[in-house]
Design brief:
Layout: H1 11-19, H2 27-37, E1 42-45, H3 52-63, E2 72-75, H4 79-92, E3 100-103, H5 109-117, E4 122-125, H6 127-135, E5 146-150, H7 152-155, H8 158-169, E6 176-181, H9 186-193, E7 200-203, H10 205-209, E8 214-220, H11 226-237, E9 242-245, H12 249-261, E10 267-270, H13 276-288, E11 293-296, E12 311-314, H14 321-328, E13 338-344, H15 349-358, E14 362-363
Parallel strand pairs: 1-6, 1-7, 2-4, 2-5, 3-4, 5-6, 8-13, 8-14, 9-11, 9-12, 10-11, 12-13
Amino acid sequence: MSFQFTPPLRPAVLEGLAAVGFSEPTPVQREAIPLILAKRDAIVQAKTGSGKTLAYGLPLLSFIKPGPRPQALVIAPTRELAIQIGEAIATVGEPCGLRVVTVYGGMSLRQQRKAVQEGQDILIGTPGRLRDLVDQDRLDLSGVRFLVLDEADRMFEMGFRKDLDFLFVHVRMREQTLIFSATIPPEIETLARKQMTNPASVRLESEALSPVELSHWYLRVPRKKRYNRLVALLRIEKPTRALIFTEMKHETEELARRLEEKGKIKAGFLNGNMTQMDRNKVMASFRSGELPVLVATDIAARGLDIEGLSHVFHYSLPAVVETYIHRSGRTARNGNVGKTVMLVSPDMEAEFDAIQKQIPCAEYLYPHGAETPDSPDPSETGSRDGE
């Protein structure tokens, strides 16, 4: 066991690591854990899939003893990420005897109130649901000593700012604040530092942008031909598991249904309009391999760790380069090899140019004649588009 640090992790944490087969810390864990154990505030930037959750989770498990109120609060932007964080910390921390509770929107507020009232030592949650529980006097955060913001750049976006500011007021007695993300733009770091005391900095930037295990490709395609090219790519590449990103919620269901009905490719979809039960169900099918293809909005771009995800396809390009990085980082995780392919239509040139400036991508050599049997849309009939 090489998880030996100064100060040390508690013996029960080492026992938990051994039980799940973890013997070597990842680079981000080697860099961040000693700083966190020394009670330093820290800003940590490292690529997706690098082990950031346990980089802060192991010290939290070492610091905390069972008590009447939550002592550590981890805030995450999405339900899926919050669930994943909770599972990871609870699994490794089982020998510690701590109560790890996860709360998020989309599930029964009554049930989550009950879970909170039964007690917790480490609390993981999304901003809105945490605020709901505090507003209703169901959650007391006055005992929180350790605050973690996971995927922090998104935390500081306008949609979360009010909830986040509210929660900061209720954790004023904290001893340590930790910021973790794969991308931390300068303006976000400036905002974060206002809530921190002389934070240490850990940056594995080259890994965050372009890990050697991940190859980046693009294919120029007329917009009307995107579907046909996508199906052809899926058949050529034969991914073990593929994630396809679209911009609009309604596109996920439409594209997944079209892939199944016309492309004869089994596919599911994921978007923010779905109930949490439906989202959990489709994610379970995708993780198990029952669904080899998942079409999703950027709700799936953050934090999700899917074993065996070999390909990411960008059916639409994001307006922000950091989102492309997070999307692509769903593959090539934990040392595995992955591939990401952009379908670049003429209306996406600006987004593509911005991505190319940070991450040079190779052109995908699309085989001549490799079309799909799917009949063209009526609007394509007689068109020379794509010839």
